[in-house]
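Feature request, filed as a ticket because there's no other form

It would be nice if the structure record came with a short human-readable summary line next to the tokens. Right now we just get the raw output. Example of a typical job, pasted below so the devs can see what we mean:
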Amino acid sequence: MPDDVPSVSQIVRQLPPSFRGRFNSLGQYVQGVIREIRGNDAPPLSAKRLRFIQLMVFIYLLNRYLEEGTKAAERAVEISNELGFESFSIGRTVFSKDNENTMLGRRLAKELLSSVNEPALIAIFQQSNSVRSLVRNLLFKTRLING
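Raw output as currently delivered:
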């Protein structure tokens, strides 16, 4: 790994407190899913591999959250259009068809995935339809990527 790439711990320390708490709470959930997939008798994963899987689950869920936010904004714009309004606002933020505010979540989701910078991992994200399937794919398809 290049020297300028931060460790998972360094990334977690840079998260806002609310995200840091969510990231840390994912740890127990991810461990439970891993135990269900591998069985209780399987040797434990290394701490590094466990944190890697936890970080990938966090990125996956954050990506879905951002995408769903855009879908919700698009649907709200559709409804406002059906009611005869070209746009609507929440506070000072104006939402209209395909404007920057409406598409912000999708843009951020794309930037998040591009920061992963590993085509095999992006493919795993796209193949996974749940956290469980993501963890399964990460366990069995990333040995070469993450040791």
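Something like this underneath would help us a lot:
The mean pLDDT is 87.
The helical segments are 8-14, 17-38, 47-82, 100-116, 119-127, 131-141, 143-146.
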